[in-house]
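Check these lines:
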Amino acid sequence: MNRVLKSLLSGPAMLAIGMAAGRALAPRPRIAHEHGDDIIEHASEAIISTDDSNTIIMANPSAAAMFATTIDKMLGRPLGNYLTPAPTTHDGPAAYFGDSSRVGRRATDYAVSGIRAGGETFPLEGSVSTVREDDLPIHTIILRDVTGRHQVQEKLSRSHAQLRQLSAALQTIREEERTHIARELHDDLGQLLASLRMDLALLQQHQAGNGSARLIKGMEQNLLTAITSLRRIATNLRPRSLDEGGLFFALQGLRDGFVERYGIACMLFADEAELRLDDTASTAIFRIVQEALTNIARHADAHNVTITLYRINGEVLLTVRDDGRGIAASDMEKAQSLGLVGMRERVWAMDGEITITSDEAPGTRIEIVLPLPRPAEH
């Protein structure tokens, strides 16, 4: 039967069906091609033929079963009794499928809704083919009930949306935890280390032997190292400049730290006035740039990086460009590319768009467009 159905979808078989249907005018005469008649009667897919006024002139048992009716009740009825929405043009059955220009060409799948006898609608896919019999067009439609497929797609869409919501919630929780830990490190542990350094400074003012002086000096150096490490860790968790100075100064600090740590030249082109954004947008953009720079340092083998950020028509346009080895399409689909996944999730959570290309060799270009929430109207 599968081989038979495949033959139905081919051009010559569709032509035979159309010719057979054209001769099946009510009252139904004997179809000339017995083999074609047998295929139509026993096909598992619904087959309907209409004239140019969309009046049904032939329907097989599968079509009657699909629409919960009988063949006799379908014959002579308008096609609009079984398909929706009604077309705005008069181009035969193809108008139901949205493109009358394809009539007579090789059958192509479209989407349409069916109407059962009880009024229930259900999704369909259809293929239309047209032949001319005695200079009159005969349209033959093969219909497939795709209710099960649509239900699966809806479940997948809901699952996908739930995963997106979960990802956004986890990003928010993660950012809140980072902020909390950074403040604890800076306010509590940082103050404790600063107090210890002051005590050491007071201790150095007193007379002490050479051994004690060397020990105190070593302790002071260790404290300075600990304070520097603490500041770096706290900044990586949540830069204070992001809360106190805003996105522009946070990006400047990120750029300076990147250059100092990796020795890669990095230019930032942005306007402070354009980057006065809310906390959600500022945090998302900062993390995206941070992840992009981390990927460049680890994988790109680049010597120069350019970050461009500007605001226009209620959107923020971000571009991160490097002159490294470039990124392959296969690299972007690797399961280990968690950095790219994180960037995409942050962008998609804000209903933005992200494009990663390496068209301009050498190097990689990351382009991001983020819509900004409109200010509340007074």
